[in-house]
């Protein structure tokens, strides 16, 4: 997914609008893709059974939410696309779900043992990425875990689902932002699609 291709002229479009516009084509492709399931399954199993986990940008819930559910976590979820959120609610009627942007969500006003953000962080502007890291730190229990995808490299590329510009702040900057928020990267992983995952713990 995140091949680092220079984008030339910027496409200025909010990621939430872009995904809403491409929701049906995105669902068609993602529903049948297993990318990320092995890592999410392993991460989920490393939390206690029944741990409280918030999934940011859950999309239609396949395959990531289903994997998190199958390993026995207690889930809350949010996504900004009304079409994807409606599909999610049909598929997972027992998971509390908000249709909201991460920038505006109250994250259900509670704390979590885990937060997951697959395919989200690099869709946001740099200030929004930094702000999100701080807000995630604020809702994680001590020792709580944050799993998110973003490249190791710094750069921009076009999102293959929507064509909008994505930006990776790069490993050094992510580690620094996380550290300033009281979070520490314990491991990184790569999946079959060559996406990089940061496995992070709240060390405060
Ligand atoms: C690449 S998809 C990943 C979906 C899901 N995590 C998965 O791996 O299948 C990106 C998702 O982010 C959502 N999204 C984009 N911008 C968002 C924002 N500002 N707040 C919340 N969700 C957002 C989109 O609607 C879409 O579902």
Describe this structure in words.
- By secondary structure, the protein is of the alpha/beta class.
- It has a single domain (15-202), classed as Rossmann fold.
- The chain has helices spanning 15-21, 23-31, 37-45, 64-70, 82-91, 126-139, 171-180; strands at 52-56, 74-79, 97-99, 112-117, 140-149, 154-158, 165-169, 183-190, 196-202.
- The strands form 2 sheets. A 7-stranded mixed sheet has the order 3-2-1-4-5-9-8, with helices on both faces.
- The termini are far apart.
- It binds S-adenosylmethionine (SAM).
- S-adenosylmethionine is lined by residues 15-16, 19, 30, 36, 57-59, 64, 79-81, 84, 101-103, 118-120, 123, 161.
Features:
204 residues; alpha/beta; Rossmann fold; seven-stranded mixed sheet; two-stranded antiparallel sheet; globular; disordered N terminus
Brief overview:
The chain is an alpha/beta fold.
| Average pLDDT score | 94
Q: Could you describe the largest sheet, including whether it forms a barrel?
A: 7 strands, mixed
* Overall structural domain count: 1
Fraction in helix: 25-40%
In terms of per-residue confidence, which ranges show pLDDT below 50 for 5 or more consecutive residues? 1-11
Spatial sequence of strands, sheet with the most strands: 3-2-1-4-5-9-8
CATH superfamily: Vaccinia Virus protein VP39
Bound molecules: S-adenosylmethionine
Overall shape: globular
Structural class determined from secondary elements: alpha/beta
CATH class: Alpha Beta
CATH topology: Rossmann fold
How much of the residues is beta strand, in percent? 25-35%
By DSSP (H or I, 4+ residues per run), the number of helices equals 7
Q: What pattern of helices and strands is seen along the backbone?
A: HHHEHEHEEHEEEHEE
Question: What is the level-2 CATH architecture name?
Answer: 3-Layer(aba) Sandwich
End-to-end distance: 33 Å
């Amino acid at each position: 997914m995140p091949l680092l291709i220079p984008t030339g002229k910027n496409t200025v479009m909010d990621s939430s609008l872009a995904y809403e516009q491409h929701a049906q084509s995105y669902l068609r492709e993602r529903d049948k893709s297993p990318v990320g399931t092995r890592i999410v399954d392993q991460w989920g199993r490393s939390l206690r059974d029944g741990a409280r986990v918030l999934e940011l940008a859950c999309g239609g819930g396949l395959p990531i939410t289903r994997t998190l559910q199958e390993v026995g976590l207690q889930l809350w979820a949010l996504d900004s696309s009304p079409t994807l959120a409606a599909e999610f609610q049909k598929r997972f009627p027992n998971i509390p779900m908000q249709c909201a942007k991460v920038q505006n969500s109250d994250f259900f006003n509670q704390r979590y043992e885990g937060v997951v953000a697959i395919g989200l962080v690099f869709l946001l502007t740099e200030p929004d990425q930094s702000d999100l890291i701080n807000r995630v730190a604020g809702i994680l229990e001590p020792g709580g875990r944050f799993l998110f995808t973003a490249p190791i490299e710094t750069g921009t590329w076009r999102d293959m689902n929507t064509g909008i510009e994505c930006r990776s702040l790069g490993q050094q900057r992510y580690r620094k932002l996380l550290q300033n928020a009281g979070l520490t990267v314990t491991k990184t992983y790569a999946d079959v699609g060559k996406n990089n995952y940061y496995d992070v713990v709240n060390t405060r």
